């Protein structure tokens, strides 16, 4: 048995234990997220708050922390899976909803909808965000595919960075003349889960559910696409349909997550790379790993933001940027991508 086969066999035996371990870590983080913050909360207050009581400050704090924790889990899982799918669809190790400008496309659509079209409810925000994410994804892939050699990781990353910068400028141009929405829009652009409510979560949950389902059902197709389009077609895969279906799942996840929490970058870049160390390249395992690990990362970032800046807080979008930017540079250097 070769070294590669030995590593693959060992990894296949350890996947389930690792998935259970990461899931256990998520449970621990959920407990910490509810009990720890600018004010630590006793278990008696936690249990009372879960029954609907808000008689004291501790119980009121738990009542606010539970929905924000749930939102952090959902958004982190969505961005982790979306990043794994995007990397599989494009065969690009640098693919990420933030790096490729997809999140910023969703942001521009929501802000423009609020400022110019009177969007006022969470469901309309979600539809606008999904539409904007889809348009941005198509635009970036088209720009990154131009020129000699078609799409390459670095060309897609550069196209995404340029598109993201342009869309961010458009967002500022829309927001600045509108004092009535500028304050909320600026804080939302940073990305965070503070102020989450069960009603807001309920509006985006159906979109997230469909996005998760489509993405997970695309796992086998992504494994075929990883072999190359010609070989995938030879194995009976409908390449264009498989790529479009997987991309649709990632766009749904990105759009819904951005509508709920703002444009949070780098989760979709960091998480799939780390999960490949545990799960390998099989997307049937990689995507569930990415969902749980993404939830862990964003929940931990939310906890860190509340603890480090207590009694205030640092938005999770800032925490993930601090973690993700150096990792992005590391991936670029490790892949040694030189072709423009």
Automatic annotation (TrEMBL):
Keyword Cell membrane: yes
Entry's Gene Ontology cellular component terms: plasma membrane
GO molecular function list: transmembrane transporter activity
Protein name, entry field: Iron ABC transporter permease
CDD domains named in the record: TM_ABC_iron-siderophores_like
Alphabetized InterPro entries for the sequence: ABC_BtuC-like, ABC_transptr_permease_BtuC
Main localization of the protein described in the UniProt heading: membrane
Alphabetic keyword roster: Cell membrane, Membrane, Transmembrane, Transmembrane helix, Transport
One Pfam family it belongs to: FecCD
Topological relation to the membrane, as annotated: Multi-pass membrane protein
Compartment annotation: Cell membrane
Phylogenetic placement of the source organism: Bacteria, Bacillati, Actinomycetota, Actinomycetes, Pseudonocardiales
Species of provenance: Amycolatopsis antarctica
């Amino acid at each position: 048995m070769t070294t590669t086969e030995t590593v693959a066999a060992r990894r296949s035996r350890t996947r389930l234990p690792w998935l259970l371990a990461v899931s256990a870590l998520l449970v621990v983080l959920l407990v910490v997220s509810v009990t720890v913050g600018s004010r630590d909360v006793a278990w008696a207050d936690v249990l009372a708050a879960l029954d609907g009581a808000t008689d004291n400050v501790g119980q009121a704090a738990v009542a606010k922390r539970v929905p924000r924790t749930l939102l952090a889990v959902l958004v982190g899982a969505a961005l982790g899976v979306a990043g794994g799918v995007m990397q599989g669809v494009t065969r690009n190790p640098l693919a990420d909803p933030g790096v490729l400008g997809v999140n910023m496309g969703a942001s521009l659509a929501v802000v423009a909808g609020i400022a110019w079209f009177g969007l006022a409810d969470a469901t309309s925000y979600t539809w606008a965000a999904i539409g904007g994410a889809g348009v941005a994804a198509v635009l970036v892939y088209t720009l990154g595919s131009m020129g000699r050699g078609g799409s390459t990781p670095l060309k897609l990353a550069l196209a995404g960075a340029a598109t993201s910068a342009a869309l961010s400028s458009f967002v500022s141009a829309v927001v600045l003349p509108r004092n009535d929405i500028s304050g909320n829009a600026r804080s939302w652009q940073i990305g965070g889960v503070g102020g989450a409510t069960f009603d807001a979560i309920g509006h985006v949950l159906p979109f997230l559910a469909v996005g998760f389902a489509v993405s997970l059902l695309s796992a086998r197709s992504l494994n075929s696409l990883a072999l190359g389009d010609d070989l995938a077609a030879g194995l009976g895969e409908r390449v264009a349909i498989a790529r479009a279906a997987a991309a649709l799942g990632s766009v749904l996840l990105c759009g819904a997550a951005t509508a709920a929490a703002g444009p949070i970058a780098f989760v979709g870049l960091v998480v799939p790379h780390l999960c490949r160390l545990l799960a390998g390249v099989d997307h049937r395992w990689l995507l569930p790993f990415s969902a749980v690990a993404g939830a862990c990362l964003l929940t931990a970032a939310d906890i860190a933001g509340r603890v480090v800046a207590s009694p205030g807080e640092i938005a999770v979008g800032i925490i993930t940027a601090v973690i993700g930017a150096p990792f992005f540079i590391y991936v670029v250097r490790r892949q040694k991508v030189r072709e423009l």
